[in-house]
Fold this sequence. Notes:
The complex is a heterodimer of chains A (234) and B (278).
Chain A: E1 8-10, E2 26-30, E3 38-44, E4 47-58, E5 70-77, H1 87-103, E6 112-122, H2 127-142, E7 150-157, E8 163-165, H3 169-174, E9 177-184, E10 190-196, H4 201-233
Parallel strand pairs in A: 5-6
Antiparallel strand pairs in A: 1-2, 2-3, 3-4, 4-6, 7-8, 7-9, 9-10
Helix pairs in contact in A: 1-2
Chain B: H1 11-22, E1 37-41, E2 49-55, E3 58-69, E4 80-86, H2 102-118, E5 127-129, E6 133-145, H3 150-164, E7 166-172, E8 179-188, E9 196-203, E10 207-210, H4 214-219, E11 222-228, E12 234-238, H5 247-277
Parallel strand pairs in B: 4-6
Antiparallel strand pairs in B: 1-2, 2-3, 3-6, 5-6, 7-8, 9-10, 9-11, 11-12
Amino acid sequence: xxxxxxxxxxxxxxxxxxxxxxxxxxxxxxxxxxxxxxxxxxxxxxxxxxxxxxxxxxxxxxxxxxxxxxxxxxxxxxxxxxxxxxxxxxxxxxxxxxxxxxxxxxxxxxxxxxxxxxxxxxxxxxxxxxxxxxxxxxxxxxxxxxxxxxxxxxxxxxxxxxxxxxxxxxxxxxxxxxxxxxxxxxxxxxxxxxxxxxxxxxxxxxxxxxxxxxxxxxxxxxxxxxxxxxxxxx
Amino acid sequence: xxxxxxxxxxxxxxxxxxxxxxxxxxxxxxxxxxxxxxxxxxxxxxxxxxxxxxxxxxxxxxxxxxxxxxxxxxxxxxxxxxxxxxxxxxxxxxxxxxxxxxxxxxxxxxxxxxxxxxxxxxxxxxxxxxxxxxxxxxxxxxxxxxxxxxxxxxxxxxxxxxxxxxxxxxxxxxxxxxxxxxxxxxxxxxxxxxxxxxxxxxxxxxxxxxxxxxxxxxxxxxxxxxxxxxxxxxxxxxxxxxxxxxxxxxxxxxxxxxxxxxxxxxxxxxxxxxxxxx
Lengths: 234, 278
């Protein structure tokens, strides 16, 4: 069986009503590797990430957990040794490790192992958000039962206090604070948050609200790309 | 165990019943109550600055070593601050000897982020001569007893130790171009911000408890750490996955973190004052 490929890109126009929720073009391709049970590549601006999911599979007795599946997250940079991860890559791994179990119903697959393997193809800005999106698409592709989907959104606050979603590398450098949130698809709540720089409480709440709005677009993109994929197969 | 709560087959069930029925935790604390925090500064005489913090049973010691070095090439007017969190096998059975584990690395990264985000010290202040000489502050944070909530304890230990640091005056001799250290003239660092962290654990997807113990951390479905400074600005909202929270729940955590900041700042000031009197 040849892997079914699909390329889907979306560009969100800068609307005049909510100029802050503008997202750049992003693209996704699911099921592009034949060995993993699910795979996806996600391209967002200059950043590109490839994710593969193996499982549920047999678990080593030593790693077995009696009431839930064992979860493993591997991150591999495109160049260099996987053992020596950059700080952002290490952070991504840590986040995915704590994030995936929430959306996956691990207790349904007890005594099984799941492995999420992420390859960072082009390490641009918003590596974390892009990796989260790629991982979610790969989990979806693997057909694992999930409680909700998740997506990553990055916001930057510039020195004048304006909020930009999906900042470019230059915007990120000049900004006063950068935050990345993972938003769940069910209730649009904050699953993960990672921040840099200092900001006020109202700015945080604004950024969360903006990210929640932006997440709607990403979830719509997920939906569109999946529906288009299956419409082609039928 | 001293807390009157023992390991059983179903610790979660026992815990759940207790929390739901009595709105109180196994160690008798209310849901929004921190454990007793104690602080001792200057505990390591061989370090340039040090502090020992206890939050309940959790014990963290921080020692700061200052060395002279050449400034980084990309920022010649700045010095270095290098934090490192060590979780040795001594502090808990969950840690093994060998290279630092995931949690220790994540904690080190978190502390480095807090220093960077909050601007505790302006890195320009620890540069002595632009492009030639600067201080490097090695902040070694070590856990002696792991009973949950190490991030809060690490930040308090770090700030108190930095406030305890006294650096000798250094001049560069214009003729020989060599550094001359005057050990008689010592100066405190200029600490511009006082970040304080507050950690919360989400329990049973709905209940938020403050300052979790190691046991509670294990039973929780999510953790969140909020770091604020004295101007009520946020320096970090760190939530590595776990149960999703709404904006309102986060707001509750932030409000609690702001009051905690006042409590801890008061504690640090009191300890600094009493140290001066000695």
